[in-house]
Amino acid sequence: MTPDEFILSIVDIKSYEKCYRGKQEGLFEGELKGLKGGIEIGIALKFPEDIDMMMALVHTVEDLDTLNEIKEALKTTKDKAEILVLLK
User: Fold this and answer.
1) Range(s) of the domain holding residue 67
2) What's the number of domains the chain is made of?
3) Is residue 37 part of a domain?
4) Looking at the whole model, is its pTM more than 0.70?
5) Of 57, 58, 60, nearest in space to 38 by CA
């Protein structure tokens, strides 16, 4: 191989960067969807009478750390107020 074959053009670099960003966004969206689905199951089991109101709030959350906190809290809480505090 010649040295020229190792040099990537700016177009190549931008293309790889766009592809990488797309994969990262896809992974993020997949994790959001999975966490929200798990939270929905937890709310349906613990607070079925409030699922519509609570899930409307859950769907506004885009922070993975907050969603993980909610998921963990659902494992032990008996009071929906604890979850609602995390959703605000």
Assistant:
1) 9-87
2) 1
3) yes
4) yes
5) 58
